[in-house]
Structure formats: C-alpha cells, structure tokens
Write a structure and sequence with these properties.
It contains nine helices and ten strands. By secondary structure, the protein is an alpha/beta fold. It has an eight-stranded parallel β-sheet, with helices on both faces. The protein starts with 40 loop residues before the first strand and ends with a helix.
Length: 324
C-alpha cells in the first residue's frame, strides 16, 4: 500500500488541525464545577424517565438535544465562529445570542429507582445555578422533572407557570405514586411560592383532574381554543408575571412535527404557532427558568423532534437575552 498523494494537478494542502470538542448544548463551553459557574445561561440535562407511564426513552433526550445543533447548523461547522459570536438569523439579519455567555453544566446523576433522591439532586442543581446568577435551561427527561426544577426556584416567588402540553398532568396520584409524568403540575400547585398556572394546548384530559385544576384557579386553553384565538390572543389571556417559568412538553406539538415523544396526541400546535405564543409571553414577563421535556429519541427516527426542540430552545433564549 502506498501513502496517499494528491493528483499531479492538485496542490498538496497541510493536514487539518484536529481538535477535540465536547458534546454540549449549542457547542457552549463545558462547566466542570457548577459552584464556579459564571454564565448567563446554565444548561442542565436531566436523563430521567422513571416517571413515565407508557413508552420510556426520554432519558436519552438531553444528549440528543446536545447533538441537534450540529445537524441544524446553529454554529459554524468549520470552527471559524465561536458560540459567543451568536447564531445568524436570516429574518433578524443579525446574530442571535451574541455576547450571551452560556455553559453546559452536564447531566444530573440519576440513580435507577431512587426517585426521591434523584429529585433532590435535580432541585440542588437548579438552586446552584440560580445562586450563581444564571438562568437554568433544563432539558429532560420526562415531565416528572418539572416539579423538582420548580422547587429549586423558591427565591423567585411568587412564580407563575405557563405549561405547554397535550395533557393536563394534574393527576394527584397513580396507585399512590405521587411523582409521575402525570402529576408535575399538581405537585407544583402545592408549592407555596407558585402563583398562577396556565396550561396551553391541552387535547387529552380526564374529568376529575380537569375539574380540580379549574377549582384551583388554573387557566386551561385547549388545542382547539388555541387555534380559534391564535397565538397572540392566547398570550394576552395569560396573567402578566413578575417572574415566569415555562415548561414545554414537546407533545403539545402535532405529531407530524414532533413524533419523537412517548405520548403523542393528534391535532397539536405547529412550531410557528408555539413560537409566536412564546415570544409574546416573553415580551412582557421576566423568564427565570424553563424546561423542554418528553423528547424521546427512540421514537424520533427522522430526528425531527430534536431539531424542533433545539430551535425552540434557541427562540426562548434569544427572546430572553437580546444580542449585546
């Protein structure tokens, strides 16, 4: 075997400089110690799906979302532009998130079958990010993780929650189990510092949890009602929040746009509708943290769901942190 040599009419180029690159959200720098964190945004992965009642797989969501920006060309694939320089947006004709410091704090260690202990670790990770002045951007994982995340935000009370989902997630318990992905909004309602809760895009609900949510003061906007009113009108219905938490379950989207989730429901929102509602909300409320949950890569053969979820993460962050 002979060594490689270019054709005679092709000049020989030097070998490229090979670089090891960590697998991180949006190619952001990796934070090795959250207690030393210095960033505007702290990405926290939560590979937990022990609260899933049906199809598991959301535990693989965080790493799939880490890979998505590479495929979607959020950043320069040739390494000529750093994440600090932002991501070019053709409509804005400018870079989004320019000068915004983001860091990937890794995944919360999840121990099988240790739900209460896992929830404690999730809460502490969020508290540490908040203590360092960063906005926690949490990626699940199934929807059960929203409760321990919100529990770590007590310093922001009163805290309003806007919940995008196909399901109410307001069941009190499932055969005495309190911490499943059917109950996180109910558990959040029980926190003293949580104020108003709005659920948007609901298409599947049982009578008792629905009546209990209404009794407890929740505003519920069904998927059909959302389509009748439109994104801006829905956003206008939601009480203005001094401090806002958004929990976004990808099954609020139509399965044609987000098939990679454990509990798809037909007739969902489309990306552009969800985006417009999110931007309208963020224009008048102070977002202190958010989560994206229920991305389940085993059912996402096209990788469409991770692309849509990653884009929504960028939309939320760009609305919260204008380029500098």
């Amino acid at each position: 075997m002979t060594a490689f040599s270019p054709p005679p009419d092709q000049p020989q180029e030097p070998w490229p400089n090979l670089r090891a690159q960590p697998r991180t959200f949006f190619n952001a720098p990796l934070c090795q110690d959250i207690e030393q964190l210095e960033a505007d945004v702290a990405f926290i992965g939560v590979p937990f799906d022990q609260g899933t009642l049906g199809r598991p797989g959301a535990r693989f969501g965080p790493d799939a979302l880490r890979d998505a920006p590479r495929a979607y060309s959020y950043s320069d694939p040739y390494g000529r532009q750093s994440v600090a320089e932002g991501f070019f947006d053709i409509d804005a004709e400018d870079e989004l998130l320019r000068g915004v410091v983001m860091a990937d704090c890794g995944n919360v260690p999840i121990v099988p079958s240790e739900v209460v202990g896992n929830f404690g670790r999730i809460t502490r990770a969020v508290e540490q990010a908040v203590e360092r002045g960063a906005l926690p951007a949490v990626v699940g994982g199934d929807h059960a993780i929203t409760f321990p995340v919100v529990r770590g935000l007590s310093k922001f009370g009163p805290l309003n929650i806007v919940h995008f989902d196909a399901h109410l997630d307001y069941t009190h318990d499932v055969q005495d189990a309190l911490y499943t992905h059917a109950s996180p909004i109910r558990r959040c309602r029980e926190l003293e510092f949580v104020g108003h809760i709005t659920s948007v895009g609901i298409r599947s609900a049982r009578r008792i949890p629905y009546e209990e949510a209404v009794r407890d003061g929740s505003l519920i906007v069904s998927g059909q009602r959302f389509r009748e009113l439109g994104p801006q009108a829905v956003a206008d219905m939601i009480p203005t929040a001094e401090n806002l938490y958004i929990t976004f379950d990808v099954d609020v989207l139509d399965p044609s746009q987000a098939p990679g989730t454990g509990t798809p429901e037909t007739g969902g929102l489309f990306y552009q509708e969800a985006r417009e509602c999110l931007l309208a909300l963020l224009a008048r409320s102070n977002l202190v943290a958010f989560d994206i949950v229920e991305v389940a890569p085993p059912y996402d053969n096209s990788e469409l769901t991770v692309q849509v979820a990653a884009r929504l993460m960028q939309d939320i962050l760009a609305a919260r942190f204008p380029s500098r």
